[in-house]
């Protein structure tokens, strides 16, 4: 590599997604010299293939439902059709504006942005596009990819979210393989766009990582929306004939579809990048890191989806910022994974933080729970949504879990995370005044009730 230019930085970051670029921005703010290496588009999965485009689709889906349901509110509307070119133009416009903004932000800082596929060639060296970037510290942030199942090739009408984001038509029949976050979000979009949807999930319930009561309510709501789902059932294969995919289940049942969306999770992008050769411990492809995002190799950090845990953009941001501050010697507090808010943006939305009832019982022993039904919440009634706010507290102690479901309830996760992270008692929250009529009031009411002074609640 004698012809290779060599530069030295305080931090070399491999991957410019949520985790990588957040680290770069914070490090630059702190006066550290930074190289940020990205082989695709700055912003990564979240901006281009994940959070933002899917939420734009979900918003278009909500508009379609509003057009259909106008008469419920005495407004005469008719739903005509979904023009996917129009939807894609809207979605791509949102992504494009944010992308431009992010590029400008990175340019405005003292960050050496390097385009190309990088490899870790020594514990402190990333090689990319003919350059050797030497880092006093190296941050691995190469993200994740959509997985499939053995023998299930992603081709034709069998897609992952990567292809399903760019459809030019609404498929008549969709099978969604996987009832996790990405699966139920897409199922919700397709149903609103007019597809007949069937979710196939091997686990006993949809969104199985959530509190059981949330899964039950989602299943009730999906039944009402006529979104079909089969739980506890294993997929056995799929064949494509012409434009039709036939999906087979281990039960012997088959389902014909015009699109099979494979949403069975995301694997880490770590293979062939030199991590293991540099001595970094990798477990089933994931990079193991401690609560300071340090790998087993001194000076090498890992952030975002490549580290086992919640695969969420804001976790990546937080870890990226953490690492920059740690390297700058600011001694930031470690991140509590349970204190990371989780939102699933299907209709109805799900928002949660902290421990589920089952997890809390296991961790704390004696607990109390309270479910506040949105039936008593004025704004939710105005919107015509069903759902609840469920609180989990340690017996006579702080709230350790908040679980919410209902239209737009994702917006309530902000207060829920303050409650969890500040270890608030129900009585602490009960004395805060929540504006009427908002859905936020439902959080206040739940805490009033758990503090023993219910207002618009029967128990
Ligand atoms: C359909 C979908 C919907 C989602 N919705 C949400 C949501 O609503 N909210 C939420 O919080 N999260 C959501 N996520 C998850 C979120 O997108 C990820 O958690 C987040 O993007 C992880 O950030 P990251 O930095 O770890 O990885 P990524 O964003 O994947 O970024 C990694 C980057 O590294 C680059 N890279 C990889 N290898 C190399 C290399 N060798 N050299 C140079 N560059 C490289 C890639 O090109 C990529 O840009 C969603 C994901 C999907 C797929």
Radius of gyration: 23 Å
Could you tell me the number of beta strands? Answer: 24
Q: What coarse outline follows from CA principal-axis ratios?
A: globular
**Unreliable sequence segments:** none
Mind describing the biggest β-sheet?
A: 7 strands, mixed
Q: How far apart, in Å, are the first and last alpha carbons?
A: 73 Å
Q: Helical percent range?
A: 25-40%
The total of helices stands at 13
Small molecules (ligands, ions, cofactors) in the structure:
flavin-adenine dinucleotide
- The overall pLDDT, averaged over residues, is 97
Fraction of residues in β-strands: 25-35%
Which structural class matches the secondary elements? alpha/beta
Could you list some keywords that capture this structure?
about 450 residues, alpha/beta, five-stranded parallel β-sheet, 24 strands, about 30% helix, globular
Protein described:
There is one protein chain. With 459 residues, this protein is an alpha/beta fold. 32% of the residues lie in helices and 26% in strands. The protein contains 13 helices and 24 strands. It has helices spanning 18-29, 44-49, 51-69, 84-108, 161-164, 181-193, 212-224, 313-327, 357-364, 378-383, 413-421, 426-430, 440-450, and strands at residues 5-14, 34-38, 111-115, 119-122, 125-128, 131-140, 144-146, 158-159, 173-177, 196-200, 228-230, 235-241, 244-249, 254-257, 259-262, 266-268, 282-283, 286-287, 300-302, 342-344, 349-354, 367-373, 388-394, 399-406. The strands form 6 sheets. Strands 1, 2, 3, 4, 5, 6 and 19 form a 7-stranded mixed beta sheet that branches. It has a 5-stranded parallel beta sheet with strand order 8-15-9-10-11. Helix 1 packs parallel to helix 8 (313-327), helix 3 packs antiparallel against helix 4 and helix 3 (51-69) packs parallel to helix 6. The longest helix has 25 residues, at 84-108. The protein is globular, with a radius of gyration of 23 Å. The N and C termini lie far apart (73 Å). The protein binds flavin-adenine dinucleotide. Flavin-adenine dinucleotide (FAD) is lined by residues 14-20, 37-40, 44-46, 49-51, 54-55, 117-118, 141-144, 161, 182, 269, 273, 304-305, 311-314, 316, 345.
């Amino acid at each position: 590599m004698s012809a290779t230019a060599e530069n030295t930085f305080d931090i070399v970051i491999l991957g410019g997604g949520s985790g990588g670029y957040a680290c770069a921005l914070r490090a630059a703010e702190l006066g550290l010299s930074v190289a940020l290496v990205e082989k695709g588009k700055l912003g990564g999965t979240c901006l281009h293939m994940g959070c933002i485009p899917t939420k734009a689709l979900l918003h278009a889906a909500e508009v379609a439902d509003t057009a259909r349901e106008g008469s419920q509110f005495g407004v005469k509307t008719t739903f005509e059709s979904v023009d996917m070119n129009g939807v894609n133009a809207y979605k791509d416009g949102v992504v494009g504006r944010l992308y431009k903004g992010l590029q400008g932000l990175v340019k405005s800082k003292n960050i050496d942005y390097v385009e190309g596929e990088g490899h870790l060639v020594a514990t402190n060296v990333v090689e990319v596009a003919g350059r050797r970037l030497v880092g006093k510290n190296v941050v691995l942030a190469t993200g994740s990819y959509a997985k499939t199942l053995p023998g299930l090739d992603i081709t034709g009408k069998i897609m992952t979210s990567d292809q399903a984001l760019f459809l030019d038509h609404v498929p008549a029949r969709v099978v969604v393989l996987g009832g996790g976050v990405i699966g139920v979000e897409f199922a919700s979009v397709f149903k609103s766009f007019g597809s007949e949807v069937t979710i196939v999930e091997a686990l006993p319930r949809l969104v199985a990582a959530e509190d059981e009561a949330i899964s039950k309510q989602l299943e009730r709501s999906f039944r009402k929306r006529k979104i079909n789902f089969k739980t506890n059932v294993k997929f056995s294969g799929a064949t494509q004939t012409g434009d039709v995919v036939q999906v087979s289940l281990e039960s012997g049942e088959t389902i014909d579809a015009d699109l099979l969306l494979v949403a069975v999770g995301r694997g880490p992008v770590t293979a062939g990048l030199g991590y293991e050769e540099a001595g970094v411990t990798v477990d089933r492809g994931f990079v193991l890191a401690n609560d300071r995002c340090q790998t087993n190799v001194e000076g090498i950090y890992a952030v975002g989806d490549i580290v086992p845990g919640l695969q969420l953009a804001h976790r990546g941001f937080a870890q990226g910022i953490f690492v920059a501050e740690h390297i700058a010697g600011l001694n930031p507090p470690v991140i509590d994974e349970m204190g990371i808010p989780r939102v699933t943006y299907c209709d109805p939305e799900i928002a949660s933080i902290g421990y589920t009832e089952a997890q809390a019982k296991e961790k704390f022993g004696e607990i109390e729970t309270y479910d506040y039904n949105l039936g008593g919440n004025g704004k939710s009634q105005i919107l015509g949504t069903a759902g609840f706010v469920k609180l989990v507290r340690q017996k006579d102690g702080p709230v350790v879990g908040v679980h919410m479901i209902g239209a737009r309830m994702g917006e309530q996760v902000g207060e829920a995370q303050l409650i969890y992270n500040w270890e608030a008692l129900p009585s602490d929250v009960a004395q805060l005044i929540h504006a009427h009529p908002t859905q936020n009031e439902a959080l206040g009411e739940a805490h009033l009730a758990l503090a023993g002074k219910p207002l618009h609640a029967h128990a």
